[in-house]
Amino acid sequence: MCAPGNAVAARKVQLATIFAEHGEAYRKNHKLPLQHRKVLFAIEACRSSTLGSHVELCERCAYQRITYNSCRNRHCPKCQKLNREKWVEKLSCTLLPVRYFHIVFTLPSELNRLCLVNQKILYDLLFAAASQTILSLAGDPKHLGAQTGLVALLHTWGKR
Ligand SMILES: [Zn+2]
What we know:
single chain; two-stranded antiparallel sheet; 6 helices
């Protein structure tokens, strides 16, 4: 049985390619907030001639190559790949040799202002609710019926 991501990985489909091929039609048929349009543009343009290029020079052998500029958008899979790999490598020393799943819990945007002034309380509640949900569902014999563990991290807008 294949792991869920294998079919997509085998085709090496890039999000930028999908946006380049279908983005314009999608934008014509869907009203998107400006921020979403910016993200679509950034991902589509990342490491293409659209954003320009720069010359990389090896100081040892003087080898030069021209490289297209990155968008550096936090939603861009190309730009975030290196950060993700570094984080996973750093974390992997403490992980068990078992299968892991990536699960995202998101607070509704209506709570954004409340979070700004009550960060500790709300983020503690988010972590408690998320971990209890995972432990409870995984422990339920109707689902996994297993004792699980988790690694949780907070990813906020605009903060590293
Ligand atoms: Zn990018």
